[in-house]
Amino acid sequence: MSTKIKAIEGSVLEGLSKTLGDTERGLSGTEIGKFLAEVQIPDWDSTNTKWRRLYNAFVEHQNKVQYSNRILKFINKSMNPARFVGKQEEFEFLRFELNKRLCFISLELTESGKFTKTNVAKTITDAEQRANRLKNKLEQRNTHPTIFQYCEAELLADNYFHTVFEATKSIAETIRNRTGLTSDGAELIDSAFSIKNPLIQINDLENDTQKSEHKGFANLIKGVFGMFRNVTAHAPKFIWEMDEIDALDILSTISLIHRKLGVKTAHNNV
């Protein structure tokens, strides 16, 4: 960076230091020393905890020079994607947490490990939404766009429970829109995917193998309804435990269903 970047506010600097010095997923003590040396920031408090060691080094340097270029260069070096080959989960965790803080100084760390300018965040909610982790992971999986259309608010809040609930409802709505049917649940699926008079087909239904695939797909949708939509519709959020991995797997299945519903549009009899 040739242009001098203004000093980073102390609270933001503290948050960045805590993320980079995170006990479980942050930098090791050796890595902290290595990158501080590479960006020429004195490591004068090396016996302290990792995040305080970083914070004190950053503050001391910034107070002396009155700009933050070397601190940002430290983040670039420590978040170089080449360091995280085979450890994408760790990279995305750190990037997500760093971006929560960086957006308060109009910066965002991209997947390439470089900075881009963004509008400054003014509230915690804004920062959380900007850094949205679940949505980013779904985008990496090339998730069907219908998921994003139906679950935008839930995804922005990283709300696993209600994202899955809304995404599951999107299947029935898509089938109703395609067929003109007004029913729901198993009745809707049986009518739409009837072997004798199908309103939606995922193949030509010309042999037993294709018929079995067609029936299996219909049963898959019923299973998603039965296991996720029907349960979540009646279970309080605190009872239905769902973590990020579960949500991603469920949403990937729903994405597959939407792709299957869209691929064979020529077979739609409506």
What would you say this structure looks like, in words?
There is one protein chain. This protein has twelve helices and two strands. It has 270 residues and is mainly alpha-helical. It has a two-stranded antiparallel ribbon. Helix 1 (10-20) packs antiparallel against helix 3 (50-65) and helix 1 packs antiparallel against helix 5 (88-102). The chain is elongated and about 80 Å long. Residues 265-270 have low confidence and may be disordered.
Structural class: mainly alpha
* Estimated helix fraction: 55-70%
Spatial shape: elongated
Give the averaged pLDDT, no decimals.
Answer: 86
What is the first-to-last residue Cα distance?
59 Å
Strand order of the largest sheet: 1-2
Please tally the helical runs, counting DSSP H or I stretches of 4 or more residues.
12
Q: What is the H-and-E element order?
A: HHHHHEEHHHHHHH
The percentage of residues in β strands lies in under 5%
Compute the number of strand runs.
Answer: 2
Low-confidence stretches: 265-270
* Largest β-sheet summary: 2 strands, antiparallel
Query: Which value, in Å, is the CA radius of gyration?
Result: 25 Å
